[in-house]
Each structure stands twice: as C-alpha cells, then as structure tokens.
Amino acid sequence: MVINLENKRNELQKALKARHVSMISIGGVIGGGLYIGSGAIIKATGPGAILSYLLASVVVVLVMRMLGEMAVVNPDSGSFSTYAYKAIGPWAGFTIGWLYWFNWIIIMAIETTLLGSMVHDWFPTIPMSLATIAFPVVMTVTNIYSVKSYGEFEYWLAFAKVAAIITFLCLGVAMIFGIVPGFKSPGISNIMGNGGFFPKGFLPVLLSIIFITFSLSGSEVAAIAAGESEDPERNIIKAINSVVWRLLLFFVGSVIILVTLIPRTAEDLLTAPYASVFSMAGLPAAGAFMNIVIFISLLSILNSGLYTSSRMLYSLSNKGDAPTVLSKVNKRGIPIYALMVSVSFIYVCTMFKFLSPDKLFVFLANSSGGVTMIMYMFIAVSHLRLRRKIEKESPEVLKVKMWLFPYLTYATILILIGIFVAQAFIEDMKLQFLLSSLLTLLVIAAYFLFYRKKKVPSTEKENKLERVQ
Q1: Which of 47, 113, 407, 435 is the most buried (most CB within 10 A)?
Q2: Angle at 129 between CA 127 and CA 135, to 5 degrees
Q3: Which residue has the higher pLDDT, 248 or 132?
C-alpha cells in the first residue's frame, strides 16, 4: 500500500461549510470601493455610471465563470496559480502566485492603517500606530486557530456587510417610490436632467469601466476557500452561480439608487454617497452607521487577505516556487509559517506607509495596482487551454461550463488586454501600468534566473515523498 506521508502531514483541513464559502464569495466584492468609490464614478459620468458598473460586472462575471469551471474540475488552494502552472507553464504559476500574494500584502497594509486611523478618530487617546499594530494580530488569531474559525468569523463580517447593503437597497427603493415620510421622491429628474444620461459624453463611461473593474476583485477568494470546504464541487458551483446576481444587485442596483436620489452636481453628497442617502431619509447618525459598516468591511478584507495570502504561499511552496517550510501545517491544518510570513510583511509595508507614505509606499502600491487585470488574463488564458484538454480527455468532469466557448473566452481576453493597456493612456493610472508591468517582468525573470534550474520533475518529487508500508 502506497501512502504519501509527507502530503498527509501537510494537508489543509476540509472544514469550511457551504454557508461559509457562499458568504465569503458574496462579501468578497463588498468593500470601501463600493461605499466611497461609487461617488467619484458618478461625479465623472453622471447616470451613465449605471452602464459603467453593468459592463464592468459583466467582465468580472465572465472571468469568474471560467475560474469556476476550472475550480470544479480541480479545487485547489492555489486556484488560478495552479491552473496557470498546468495550462501555461511553471513560470506562469510562479508569476501570478507571487504577484497575487504581493498585491494582498499591499492591500492589507492599506486596510490596517485605515483601521488604525478610524480607531484613533473614535478614541483619540489610542495612538494610531498602536491601533494599526493591533489589527493584524487580532486577525491572525482568527486564522491561526482553524480554517473553520476563519470561515465563521468571515461569515458574520460578510453577513453584516450584506445586511447593510440590503438595508440601503430597501430604503432607497422606498425613497424612490415616495413612501419615506418627509422625503419627496425626485422621480427620474436626476437621471434625465442635468445634461441627461451622458452629461459628459460616452468616453467617461468607458474610462470608468477601467477603474471599476480593478475594484471588483474579491470573488476569486471563494475559489481558493472552496479547496478547504467539505463539498468543493457543490460549493464552487453555488458560489460562482451567485456571482451574477450579487454583482447586479449590490453594485448595479446600488448605483441605480444613488443616481436616482442624488443629483450629479451635488458633489458634497457624492463624497460619502451611502451616508448621504441615509441622511436624506432623515435617519439619525447616518454617518456613524456607515463608518461602522466601512470598519467591518476593512476587518473582513484583512481577515480574508491573511487567509488568501497564506494559502497562496502554501500552494507556491508545494509546487517548489517558495521555501519548503511554507508548506508545513500545524495540527489543525493551518499553514502556520506561510501565515506568519504574510503577517510579517504586512508590518514591513505598514512601516513604509508611516515612514514614506508619499514615495516608497506609493511606489509599492502602484506596483501592485495592476495585478487584478494580470490575474484575470492568466485565468482566461488558462481556461482556454485547460478546457480544450479536458474536452479531449474527460469531458464528463465539466459540471460548470463557460458560455459560448471559445468565443466569449477570446472576447474576454481581448477586453482584459484592452483594459490593462488603457491604463497607459490615463494620467492617473499611467504610473500603475508602468510599475505593474515592470514588476511582472521582474518576477518572470526571477523564475528563470533562480527557480527554473531548481525544479524537480514531478514524478521524481512524488517518489521521494512516498514510501511503502
């Protein structure tokens, strides 16, 4: 009897339940970009923001459908990094895995400092630096105990975000139909007035799609989490199928309400659009309520970021693309060393945020800014190659299929390339395009210079790990 003892010792737990994966996928796209960023988009485009969010959502839905198809066939904690490894080559898995990990480290450093700032604003006696240091420690505790504790904590954080959005949607609909006491519905005057649906033309609508697409990442966390769930196939199918309605409801639905209730010219209201709607309805402490919601969203992002970054390091280590020690797990199935490395780098980047916020940290943030589009392109190309291989070898395993394959896959790849390259022609995104491109080339070069020669053929590696009992 052949037993892979090393793999057995280093296995992750399969402890996430269906409700955990479902809520992780739903909450993954709800963050500060929705609560605050939507106001800036509406200022730039007017009611045309509805079309911008709709088209950006369609792009993300198509990418997640491809990822879901691959994840059902092979649920893996490395997700798209593993699929790129198999479909394109080891260099591709190495590249997107490390880029994605770096991107999460920067995101978590930003969220940590925002959390520290909010706590200091609420309780001035608590130094911002102390509050900032505390949050990664707290989130590490939820991640280090067990994957189930992470899932449970993230479930309730995501539940709070979803409840807040649903409350906003219900209130907004009531205000539009004029059934909120003391508020007179504007009808469609804000949509058709002030220059019409496209007050600044159609170009700002297209440009906004670029900004929005970058802010819609988060759904892919469900594919990573499903690798540690009790029923990966069922949970992935459920999570991926819900991508369509949750993006349409939470993002497009919210923006419809915002552009209907708030005039495009009311820039003061669009600075914090969600809080403004609650205030317009006459609800007390609207600003405080939204601050709590944003605080919960930041905690959720930090919690998921620690989970996702540690699993990506774990997967990279298993493929020989990171130090072997990072694939070690504790008795509860947690990749403890990968988690600790991620936490350590959060603190390093947070230190840069305090010491050099306008230079070094901006450099790091812009370097990681384009990773989302690069990740989406790797997913699409991987899907194109793996789908054809699976159709030849075992088509029966395709429980979820990308629509209109391969035409929609090709179209999505072209759109993603267009969105990524378009950054070079937008003043605010030019530096992000250049630095993200440079970082990607450096990571690819690092693979060929330092890792390619160290690669052990998979059969040889497997033989070393196995023994007969």
Answers
A1: 47
A2: 105
A3: 132
